[in-house]
């Protein structure tokens, strides 16, 4: 049985990754699961300088999902390299670092800082967080700006470059093409969907930031449809995510066109979720007589 | 370490209006909890509600542990109907715990309402050393007082309406207590309850030069420090209630 998948030039031992922002810096989960079993660990989004994030309350549970407005709180790239990366290096897994900037220049600098580090196997560029201040979302919603920022980063890194796309657009395939034309090696989707919740007693929004990003099983059908569309639109590998709670969900994403999948909110519900999903995929392959998991990718597309 | 384990419900009975006591027996080995720590309990096998719910450790028992909870929202409404024999996935014990007083310190334990759930095991552990102040709006909201009886050194009950014990808040009583009793060379406060109460206690403690630890509550998704959903503002930036807390030095909180 062959579980290996290729995300551009990045070869992963299996398709199961962790979605950025749901897995801390990996160490939070190390007592529960063997990180070496994962295809890749994708860490919480990093910026050049540490960020405090949004004021609380930051979290609301909704029907089969949750809204978060963390606001990209992180320890900054330097502390990550000094305090977190050495720990991740002790595991036999690929480390993908999610990063962002507040300007094209910051994106470039962050990419360069991370690219000089041994033990980082790929970069995931976040152009799609719904919890940033107004104006920032232009990186992920205007294809011209997407092309510009991805092109700039491309020139500063030789590492496999994954661009994480926002679902908060009219046509995600336009955004996908812009990122690929600018040099992205792979695309990951979807980030959270912008939403909100209101407390009917206080008559005020429940989140300190008013709006937040919806994740969890509630968004899975939307995510699946977008992976299906992007697979048709571009030639690069797609990493599918959005409400994956089980191996069945993961397989659906692969059939829609994903080469790899990321487990997100499920990590919060059950710290063993990523490994249980991997085991479930293996079980599915055995039962279906599938030799190579990569053969599943995109097979839901007719013809 | 095994902080993700299965536990079976042994009983889940009302102890008061809208309050239940849940007794769980661990099926897998569990890590020894400390007073002030909490657990994330699976209340449903389905996708809605999705997240586990955080509850303070009420008491460690021979067979496992107990949770005292107020029936308030979607999660606890489901939890209250779970029957004996139901097996739940549990994450914990999580977070830090109440730092125990030194021999020269006199522990003052303060509970407001359901806050009693968090401090009960501390009072038990301090075996007859703790001065306990337990307040609620009215008599019918004070409970578990019989259970407290064998553990405390002194118990002061207070109600806003005067229907039981002292009329007034625990903060009023505490302030008088600290000022009047000179035997307290070094009182140290441990408190859990509504945020407004904790804020007042922090003020009183600060004004009187008394050390105070408060246990805070925030919505959280994971309980293990990954989601960053449960942060509170402190003098050293945002801190996670689930990891750096739930017990904080009252001086560090930006109220």
Automatic annotation (TrEMBL), chain A:
<feature type="binding site">
    <location>
        <position position="164"/>
    </location>
    <ligand>
        <name>FMN</name>
    </ligand>
</feature>
<dbReference type="InterPro" id="IPR001295">
    <property type="entry name" value="Dihydroorotate_DH_CS"/>
</dbReference>
<dbReference type="GO" id="GO:0004152">
    <property type="term" value="F:dihydroorotate dehydrogenase activity"/>
</dbReference>
<feature type="binding site">
    <location>
        <begin position="191"/>
        <end position="192"/>
    </location>
    <ligand>
        <name>substrate</name>
    </ligand>
</feature>
<comment type="pathway">
    <text>Pyrimidine metabolism; UMP biosynthesis via de novo pathway.</text>
</comment>
<keyword id="KW-0560">Oxidoreductase</keyword>
<protein>
    <recommendedName>
        <fullName>Dihydroorotate dehydrogenase</fullName>
        <ecNumber>1.3.-.-</ecNumber>
    </recommendedName>
</protein>
<feature type="binding site">
    <location>
        <begin position="68"/>
        <end position="72"/>
    </location>
    <ligand>
        <name>substrate</name>
    </ligand>
</feature>
<feature type="binding site">
    <location>
        <begin position="44"/>
        <end position="45"/>
    </location>
    <ligand>
        <name>FMN</name>
    </ligand>
</feature>
<dbReference type="GO" id="GO:0006207">
    <property type="term" value="P:'de novo' pyrimidine nucleobase biosynthetic process"/>
</dbReference>
<feature type="binding site">
    <location>
        <position position="216"/>
    </location>
    <ligand>
        <name>FMN</name>
    </ligand>
</feature>
<feature type="binding site">
    <location>
        <position position="190"/>
    </location>
    <ligand>
        <name>FMN</name>
    </ligand>
</feature>
<feature type="binding site">
    <location>
        <begin position="242"/>
        <end position="243"/>
    </location>
    <ligand>
        <name>FMN</name>
    </ligand>
</feature>
<dbReference type="InterPro" id="IPR024920">
    <property type="entry name" value="Dihydroorotate_DH_1"/>
</dbReference>
<feature type="binding site">
    <location>
        <position position="126"/>
    </location>
    <ligand>
        <name>substrate</name>
    </ligand>
</feature>
<keyword id="KW-0285">Flavoprotein</keyword>
<comment type="similarity">
    <text>Belongs to the dihydroorotate dehydrogenase family. Type 1 subfamily.</text>
</comment>
<dbReference type="GO" id="GO:0005737">
    <property type="term" value="C:cytoplasm"/>
</dbReference>
<keyword id="KW-0665">Pyrimidine biosynthesis</keyword>
<feature type="active site" description="Nucleophile">
    <location>
        <position position="129"/>
    </location>
</feature>
<dbReference type="Pfam" id="PF01180">
    <property type="entry name" value="DHO_dh"/>
</dbReference>
<dbReference type="InterPro" id="IPR005720">
    <property type="entry name" value="Dihydroorotate_DH_cat"/>
</dbReference>
TrEMBL record, chain B:
<keyword id="KW-0274">FAD</keyword>
<dbReference type="Pfam" id="PF00175">
    <property type="entry name" value="NAD_binding_1"/>
</dbReference>
<keyword id="KW-0813">Transport</keyword>
<keyword id="KW-0411">Iron-sulfur</keyword>
<protein>
    <recommendedName>
        <fullName>Dihydroorotate dehydrogenase B (NAD(+)), electron transfer subunit</fullName>
    </recommendedName>
</protein>
<feature type="binding site">
    <location>
        <position position="242"/>
    </location>
    <ligand>
        <name>[2Fe-2S] cluster</name>
    </ligand>
</feature>
<comment type="pathway">
    <text>Pyrimidine metabolism; UMP biosynthesis via de novo pathway; orotate from (S)-dihydroorotate (NAD(+) route): step 1/1.</text>
</comment>
<dbReference type="GO" id="GO:0044205">
    <property type="term" value="P:'de novo' UMP biosynthetic process"/>
</dbReference>
<dbReference type="GO" id="GO:0051537">
    <property type="term" value="F:2 iron, 2 sulfur cluster binding"/>
</dbReference>
<comment type="subunit">
    <text>Heterotetramer of 2 PyrK and 2 PyrD type B subunits.</text>
</comment>
<keyword id="KW-0479">Metal-binding</keyword>
<dbReference type="InterPro" id="IPR017938">
    <property type="entry name" value="Riboflavin_synthase-like_b-brl"/>
</dbReference>
<comment type="similarity">
    <text>Belongs to the PyrK family.</text>
</comment>
<dbReference type="GO" id="GO:0016491">
    <property type="term" value="F:oxidoreductase activity"/>
</dbReference>
<feature type="binding site">
    <location>
        <begin position="75"/>
        <end position="76"/>
    </location>
    <ligand>
        <name>FAD</name>
    </ligand>
</feature>
<feature type="binding site">
    <location>
        <position position="227"/>
    </location>
    <ligand>
        <name>[2Fe-2S] cluster</name>
    </ligand>
</feature>
<dbReference type="GO" id="GO:0009055">
    <property type="term" value="F:electron transfer activity"/>
</dbReference>
<keyword id="KW-0001">2Fe-2S</keyword>
<dbReference type="InterPro" id="IPR001433">
    <property type="entry name" value="OxRdtase_FAD/NAD-bd"/>
</dbReference>
<dbReference type="InterPro" id="IPR023455">
    <property type="entry name" value="Dihydroorotate_DHASE_ETsu"/>
</dbReference>
<dbReference type="InterPro" id="IPR037117">
    <property type="entry name" value="Dihydroorotate_DH_ele_sf"/>
</dbReference>
<keyword id="KW-0665">Pyrimidine biosynthesis</keyword>
